[in-house]
């Protein structure tokens, strides 16, 4: 998978810093980044999503505590794929937070505030944005099971938020 990322990143002039390089280079199924503001967590997650979007038939979700927060990463991907690089899309809606490539990969922005929207699908790649603000129940009951059948991968990003379940 790294070759896809490397060539796409060269094409889009993405230059990750050393911390982002460590995240991109890790092959762990579950990766977690807890870092301060302005570290580049959202950009790092967007680039990981783009890497999956270049593969055929992948289901990718961004889940944040609410729809407004899911917009941040989604809009980065939208800008890079749809606007700047004109990646061919079968269907797309910025307002409804989804895009489907011509080769069948899908990205959907979702909200942990509406957990029922996270039922029923298998996911290849899941980004949890500001996951320290989720309840442990949302992860265990709604999100973790989506990764089971496809052995999907997860990248959780957040700013620190005390000694909660994310800690």
Textual characterization of the structure:
- The protein is an alpha/beta fold and 167 residues long.
- Helix content is 34%, strand content 22%.
- It contains five helices and seven strands.
- A seven-stranded mixed beta sheet has the order 1-7-6-2-5-4-3, covered by helices on one side.
- Strand 6, helix 5 and strand 7 form a beta-alpha-beta unit.
- Helix 1 packs across helix 3.
- The protein starts with a helix and ends in a 9-residue tail after the last strand.
- The model has no long low-confidence stretch (mean pLDDT 90).
Notable traits:
single chain; 167 residues; 5 helices; 7 strands; globular
Tally of individual helices: 5
In this structure, how is the largest beta sheet organized?
A: 7 strands, mixed
Strand order of the largest sheet: 1-7-6-2-5-4-3
The coarse silhouette is globular
What is the share of helical residues?
25-40%
Give the topology string: H per helix, E per strand.
HHEHEHEEEEHE
What's the mean pLDDT score?
A: 90
Give the low-confidence spans. Answer: none
Strand content: 15-25%
Total beta strands: 7
Radius of gyration: 15 Å
- Class derived from helix and strand content: alpha/beta
> Whole-Å distance between the termini?
29 Å
List the helices and strands and how they pair.
Blueprint: H1 2-11, H2 18-25, E1 30-34, H3 41-53, E2 59-64, H4 67-84, E3 89-93, E4 98-101, E5 106-111, E6 125-129, H5 136-143, E7 153-158
Parallel strand pairs: 1-7, 2-5, 2-6, 6-7
Antiparallel strand pairs: 3-4, 4-5
Helix pairs in contact: 1-3, 3-4
